[in-house]
Each structure stands twice: as C-alpha cells, then as structure tokens.
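worker-3 :: picked Ribulose-phosphate 3-epimerase
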Amino acid sequence: MWRFYSPAVLPATAEYMAADRVVRLNPALITLLDGRIDAVPVTVLQQEVTEQVRHLFSRRKVMTFHCDINFPDYGGFGEPAPCSNQAVFTPDFLAGLAADIRCQGGYLNLHMLTDRPLERWREYQGVSPAAVCYQLDAVPDPVYHRQLLDSINEQGSCASPVIEIFGSDSRPARAPADTFSQVQPFLRELPMLTFQAEATAARSSFAAGGLASFAVKEYIAYYQERYNGAIQLQGGVKPGTIRDAAALGADFLVCGTAIFRSGTNSPAEMVDRLLWELAAEK
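worker-3 :: tokens ->
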C-alpha cells in the first residue's frame, strides 16, 4: 500500500494520465449523502454507495475511493455545519465496503473529521482502510500525534494528515511554516499529505467555488521544497480545474461534487470527462 500512496514515477504523458496512472482520481463518497441523510433511509444510502463503488470500479478508471466521516465533535466546521454521517458510514458497513474494494484490487481512504482522531480510529480500525486521513489541526499535541500514528501503522494503513489551506471562521488556516513544523517530526511515516484546497467552510454541505490555484500553489510549493512524498488535493476539482490541480503537483485528486452531482452526466461519464480533460492537448 505504501507503494501505491507514493509519488508517481511514470512520465506525465497524455497516455499515462488517461490511464489514471499518474494523477489518480479519488471519488468522494460523502457527496452521495449530501442533503439526503435526514430524508432517505440509511439502508438505501448504503446500497447506493455500494452500487456506485462497484460500477465505477468495474470500469477500471479509478482505483481508490475516499470516505469522509463527519463527527459532531469536530470544531473546524464552518457554518452551516454539515450533517453527521456515521449512521450511514458505520464501522460494519465500511468494513464490508473496504473488503469488497480490496477483493477487486482497489483501495479505500478513510477521512475522519474529528477532534478525537485516536479514539475514533479505534472505533473504525476494523475497516482496515488503505489510507487514514485525519485533521492536522486536531493533533496539536505531538505525544497524542505519535500515539495516533503508531496505531495506524500497526494496522498496516498509511497515515495522511489533512492540512487546511483556507480553514474556517471557527478555526482559521495557519501559515505553511506552522503546519510543516507540526508534521516535520513524522515525515518519514507519512507517504502522502492531503491538502484541503477549497474554501468550503461547511465541508460537504455545499461547494463554495472553484480551485483557488494561486493560494494553493504557494502553499504546496512550500511543502514540495521540504517533502518528497505524494500530494493529495481535496476540494474544487472539476473539469475546468483538473489540469490546474494536476499542475500543482497532485498525485491524488479527491473529487466528489463533479462526479456524483453533475446533474447532466452519470458518475462514470464524469470520470471519463475528467480524465479526458486531464489528458487532452491544450
């Protein structure tokens, strides 16, 4: 798994990109739940998530899926705060989904939006996700961070802290030098860093706009001078911005709204379009 969550070494030609071998799309499954948790039965939502994963994976255009879990204890949400979704993304459901994905040669990312990542991870470690994303702003204590990383590593999963480039009113963003000093002691154990690259304050309740490329570029450039692992971008990735996102140095692109809520194209069609946009000659 560590090899998969590492920077691409192949040349970034149109052919490789079209095959999803350089920049890897990571569909955000939470988008299937947006605005529906209180209106649609849990079993129906779980079935839809399972069907979408199987359908997209069957086309062999994606190898990894991203599952955000919004916990009510996370203090970094903006307003309006998103709905808690652990009633749908339960440990048992995700364990079955992850096993299904692994059987087909794929990977599941678990992203825990919580101020208690170690405790939440202990609830969900039976999922055996390939990668575990957690909010960097939730682990200011290096001893606690060390305990979290040890637990993730013991499970055989890859750890990837999520760094907020824009933050929210309740928890403003920090300068890259500040966040880097927090991850620096653990860099050898972090094959991938994830950057929240869109000012979506409510986090999964609505899309705030496109990718703010200039601000994101400056932030990531600071890290790339000091870190040689993989970069994952989350937020603002859609047909009009995917090439910009790739140009920022991303190895993984988390994309939900464009894939699952386009309104005009099916998820599979949107994946094809995103890959075409990425590979097309301009």
